[in-house]
Amino acid sequence: MSGLSAKEAACRPQGGGEALFAEERAYRAAACVVDPEIPVVTIADLGILRSVTMEGDTAVARVTLTYTGCPAVLAIELAVEAALRDAGFKPRVERVITPAWSTDWITQEGREKLRAYGIAPPAKASNSVRALFGETEVACPRCGSHATARISEFGSTACKALYRCTACHEPFDYFKCI
């Protein structure tokens, strides 16, 4: 597919003459939906997209949002429906609330995308006492220094905290460990 980036080529629905099964095609279409609040990561990168299965002629996408009060929930669900419809499927999106989403579900690629965008990715092991009570050591996504300080428990969105690097003096968001 000349002229397409690798991501665009991977996300483009494959035609009927190609060897992809419907469920795989549907998953690929939904997996390419970007997070409306952090447009450099997809819902698959964040672990929000749990599964896509075929039920008859309907592609059923199951999503677990980062938290139930997430203001992006409707935007994500509508974007998944549109992606599935654009790929030629009759879409249905189901919200899965258990188990609750965890930052441990963010892929390694997603963590790197967050860091490159200037957001410190969450530390692993969200169920640790240190992570739960905000004692996590946060590295600056710009210079890598661990000499950082939390300025505010809330950053640009409720799922991020605002930090400042005392080495390079730059403020940055930290994706909270949940």
From TrEMBL:
Organism listed in the record: Nitratireductor indicus C115
InterPro entries given in the database record: Fe-S_Maturation_MIP18, FSCA_dom_sf, MIP18-like, PaaD-like, Zn_ribbon_PaaD
Domain MIP18 family-like: residue ranges: 32-87
Protein name stated in the entry: Phenylacetic acid degradation protein
Coiled coil: none
Organismal lineage: Bacteria, Pseudomonadati, Pseudomonadota, Alphaproteobacteria, Hyphomicrobiales
PaaD zinc beta ribbon domain boundaries: 127-176
Short name of any one Pfam family annotated for the protein: FeS_assembly_P
